[in-house]
Design a protein that fits this description.
Mean pLDDT: 81
Largest sheet: 7 strands, mixed
Distance between the termini: 96 Å
Amino acid sequence: MSQHPVSVSLGNFSLDVSGVAGLFGGDEAVQAIKTIHLYKARRWSGWYNAPGSFAVAKCLGPIANSRFWNALFPGPNEEPEKVFGLDNQSGPKYIASQSGTVIEKTTHVAYLVTQTSKEVLPLIRVKGRKTKPMTLTVVKVTDQQSDTRAPDSVRAESKENPTTIVNVLNHKKWLAGIPISASLTACALCAYNHDWYCFAMILLGIMSNGVTCLVVGSASVVLKGVKPATGAPCGDGMLVDDRSSHIVILKGAEKDVNGVTKGSFCLEYLPRVWMKKRSPNDTLGSCSSTGQLESMSTSSDPENASQKEGTKNDEGAPELKEYREIGLCGILLGMQSLLQLLLIPQGTLFGQMMFLSSFIISWVYNLYLSSLDKEKVQQRLLFETLQVGDHDMSRFELGTRTTTAVFATLLLRPSTRPGPASFDAVKLLKRFLPNETVVWNKWREHVGKHIETINWMDGQDVATEMESLNMR
């Protein structure tokens, strides 16, 4: 019987890390993998023996969508965007100043814009009476199709909705070398010590986590907008967050404002490689991916362009995104967790110590990744994609709701005189102050008339007009 080169003897003591293998570091591992789409090359830095594989499998399982995957991972199916936190918040109410559009609950993108606008500096305080102060931020949404976009960003225009591929942030990739080298070293030492159980389990952990990061992180983050109707008026409007007494005034064209109020982050996986799409009329599983991927495939095969166009126009049949490879990653992680529970206790004390050491170092790295503020990163990526900088935003503090109502209506008033018939100052004021009394009705009519008819920026006596509005 061969002797182990490295012998650790503590009498009858046996280190059983099976419980650690199954339960240790699950929350941190889930939060860490949710950052995989926000940084460049994060998908290539997962080759280490990470803890929490069972928790990650439960997190990824609902993405796989078919009867087989639903049996393995019971519960409702979820889109990747919701699982990875790219579309899990509802934005505040949106009110358009000219089109009359009212959206009670906007998208995750509008939520990010609202949260960012609350932190714009400097804060300009408007003098006057104070009862319940409110803050108001003006955001100028620029034309996303201009030539001043970031050099690395790629834009693809579909016939339906505009699509922009988000240029994600750089990441300190060298930090991933610490858990990777620790796991490989522990694996090599177990092999040198002839502890093949711990060697195999560490190697399995490295491979399963690396393959999962490679597959899951293969998607591009895409910002999808909504194409406006032909002849739509200006897209100026406001996001009203009554819970925090904050208002965001959006200024820009309808197609650009739609990117905030109706846009959404999406994860675009490569067709035929990372997911398989099926529809009742498509038994071969051919893909008609949106945005960038569809444009590339169409341009590379002009002979089949007409055929693909016909498939694209056939939107009546529902399409199933199976995400088969993500489901396979969930099975791999689940098997890893089970095998580690069974086989790690069969290893030597030295091998178990090596396994536990690689787990702890990997857990510290996952702890670092989970500590990153994903919402702040999303806000930064969004504003870089929308090409909105600090010079495009101004934040004000007003003392009363009445002052805020007048100020917001003035900001939303069309710049051309006379303004379009679709702008109704009285109606906007009523959104803020809905009181149905004789006094308030007369006040709204009086103030609304002054806002619509007077040119406040062209030689008018503003002080006299403010006195007529009782705003001094």
